[in-house]
Amino acid sequence: MFYNYFRVYKCCFYVRETLGKNKKPIKIYKFRTQKKEYELITQNKLESIIGTSIEEESLTFLGKYLRKFWIDEIPQLYNLIKGDIKLIGFRPDELRNIKDKDDSYFSIKPGLIGISYGIPIEKITKSKCKNSTRAAYKKLYIKEYLNNPIKTDVKYFGRFLYNVVFKNVRPV
């Protein structure tokens, strides 16, 4: 019975180990949307080829719909309730991508709703949020958040609602 439970768990969920606030190890839970063989492709490589057929190939049939309607993010509500993440903030990076981060990166919790949703719509469509652009926005967010956390999160949440609800945009 335990074996069957473990098989279903491993099949349905993707667990990302990362570091949260003050470099506390946390596990981020999501519904699995990619085929197993594509999990070996690093996030950086996948980001550099977004828009090509390999991105579509990597998703399972059900995974396309889970991502389209953000259902794959539902297990992260557990992380939110536990206090590992907050509602608004930069998305938690994988361990292999956070080795070169400075201490300010670890001064705040990662977020369920990524800051890329809070970027003004004109900048989303122009830059497609490349890695260098994402890093710049993370630094800006950290600076704003450390100065005034509530104002910053309200601002980004308002932009999120505007971009998603009124402009029907889902940044990559």
Q: Round the mean pLDDT to the nearest integer and report it.
A: 79
Rounded to the nearest angstrom, the distance between the terminal CA atoms is: 39 Å
The counted number of beta strands is: 4
Strand content bin: 5-15%
- State the domain count: 2
Uncertain spans: 1-6, 46-52
Helix tally? 8
Q: What order do the SSEs take from the amino end to the carboxyl end, as H and E? A: HEEHHHHEEHHH
Question: Which structural class matches the secondary elements?
Answer: alpha+beta
Main sheet: strand order: 1-2
Main sheet characteristics: 2 strands, antiparallel
Q: Specify the helix fraction band.
A: 40-55%
Radius of gyration: 16 Å
Which term fits the overall shape?
globular
Could you explain the architecture of this structure?
- The termini are far apart.
- With 172 residues, this protein is an alpha+beta fold.
- Helix 7 crosses helix 8 (149-166).
- The strands form two sheets. The chain has a two-stranded antiparallel ribbon. Strands 3-4 form a two-stranded parallel ribbon.
- It folds into two domains: 1-88, no CATH class; 114-172, no CATH class.
- It has helices at 2-12, 43-48, 53-58, 61-68, 76-82, 121-127, 131-147, 149-166, and strands at residues 13-19, 25-31, 86-88, 111-113.
- The chain has eight helices and four strands.
- A hairpin with a 5-residue loop joins strand 1 (13-19) and strand 2 (25-31).
